[in-house]
Amino acid sequence: MIDKRYKIIEEIGSGNIGKILKVIDLFSRNTVALKVLLQYAPEYVKRFKDEFLLLKKLHHPNIVQAFDFGMGDK
Questions:
Q1: Are 13 and 34 a contacting pair, CB within 8 Å?
Q2: Span 25-30, average pLDDT
Q3: Chain-centroid distance, C-alpha 49
Q4: What is the pTM of this model?
């Protein structure tokens, strides 16, 4: 469980500073992909946030839609 909101189903990808999880959003009941940082550093959080803001502006059938950004409990 992540942040008392996301129930982890499985890991679907990973990289140097983060991983992608398939989760169920317990609030909306949707199955979604959740990208999480594995390490905390201010520059990683800034890069992560910048990526989210850029992705939120894009709308194309072949690009995932970004819904939310936040920092939560482990």
A1: no
A2: 95
A3: 10
A4: 0.80
Nearest to 36 by CA among 19, 56, 24, 50: 19
Written as six digits, the tokens of 64 are: 């995932």
**Helix/strand/coil (H/E/C) assignment for every residue in 34-48:** EEEECCCCHHHHHHH
Q: In this structure, which long-range contacts are made by residues 2-6, counting pairs with CB atoms below 8 Å and at least 24 apart in sequence?
A: 2/34, 2/36, 2/72, 2/73, 2/74, 3/70, 3/72, 3/73, 4/73, 5/72, 6/34
Report d(CA 11, CA 61) in Å as an integer: 23
Distance CA 23, CA 46 (A): 24
What is the model's pLDDT at position 20?
Answer: 94
CB 7 within 8 A of CB 28: no
pLDDT at 49 exceeding the cut of 70: yes
